[in-house]
Amino acid sequence: MTDATPRVFQTSGSVWLKDFEFGLTGLTVRKTGARVPYSPSVIAQVTAWFRFFFAAQAIESLSPSFTIAFTPERARPWYLIWAVSRAAGAKLVKDASQADVVMHFEDATFSPNDPPTKLKPGVKLVNFNCRDVSKTNVARACEIAFGNRLAVDPVAHVGLAVEKSEINAAHDGRIVQCPTPAIPGRVYQRVVDNRMASDLDLVEDLRTSTVGGRPVVVFIKRRQVTKRFLNTNTEVLLRAPEDVFSPEELDQISAFAREIGLEWGGVDVLRDRTDGKLYIVDANKTDMGPPIALNLADKVKATRMMRDAFRKFVRGAA
Fold this sequence. Notes:
Number of helices: 5
Strand order of the largest sheet: 13-12-11-14-15
Strand content: 25-35%
């Protein structure tokens, strides 16, 4: 099973700038074909990212070092694992048979890849059981972990529902009135009212980064309710998971991660303001970040927190 958009470019080369085609008015992402026009907001985001890129390189690496390989694709600098693994003491190797840690890394919704056949004794394998991050599978795992049903039948449901692509990170959700005919390739979910109590014009996503299936950091992402399905945040705050979730909820998030085989990644958690219940609406095994709108000091702090957790997960406490 594959994504709807065929992948014609593998991000495996050593020079990551070749992942893009630069034109006079915009750039094109070679893997997906997505075109990003140059604009003041895009330029500002790129500038902010490069500030973090250089700050992350200045983070001291833990020792002793270990080797890591990514397969079938190489993690690029805009993925969170790039900065975190480097700070944790990882040295990148191309040959998985020479790596202490081998991470399943493919920016795709469905990625049924097996581990390489030749591996070092005692190698740590990461995310090879995470093969399906489709919205259907996420909703299934959410109900198992939390006991809260997210998916709805658009034909039988009466009222509002969220219609979105099955494909991960599409950001194409919209609210529809049900009953309505189901559209192939789309999923239908309950509308989680994650508006802030103090400002009903803002919604709040609890982006939770996990290591070893356990929450490590939470990025509180706020945006206008009219842009609830986009990734354009007006404010992002860094919090420890214990400051956001109860002990029972932390265990439920971990249960969700186990259900889909997610050992490294990020999950989008929404808290419904009407009943306080949690719903996980998205999961990503190739987590980007930290969010652009987060201040630089907290981006570095979050990277250090993730570094320590990743080091402990793959190499022990040493």
